[in-house]
Amino acid sequence: MVGMAGLWNWSAAGRIEPERVQNALAGALERAVSEIGEGPPDALLCDVYHVHGEFPTLIDVYLAPDDLAEETIASAVAVRLGAALLVPDDTLNPFRYVCATPDGGLNPVHVDEQETDDGVERRHLRPCTGSDPACAAHAGCHGSRWKPAGARPGNAG
Fold this sequence. Notes:
The structure is a single chain. The chain is α+β, with helices and mostly antiparallel strands and 157 residues long. It has helices spanning 18-29, 70-81, 133-137; strands at residues 4-12, 33-34, 44-50, 57-65, 85-88, 96-100, 106-115, 120-127. The protein has 3 helices and 8 strands. Helix 1 packs across helix 2. The termini are far apart.
């Protein structure tokens, strides 16, 4: 489909009901959002399910627009939900994310992950400082456009 990037995968702090997530996403994108198999044919598809951990609401957005920055939309959704969202960043580090905060901020962070039968649980959110063991275990934190908190004055992470 022209103008569509594919898939966004986010995790939200707190247990948030699917309809609330879909409404926040619809407001941020100013277009219809529905569950898979429901809604108008041109609606953005959004699947919401729950696991345990500090970010128990998992959000999959299908047919995501490619003309908008994912982090920008995640930030707008985080504000609407009043909950932090974890968005994959531009590194190959599987434990590093950009955290979209309820105040609209975007900060690089690390989390610990555990695979469960229900999905990936994320815990122990902390700023990416460049010296976190997760930074040392995987290359890329300093090469990211989301620099570690210690690399930029005023970035609290």
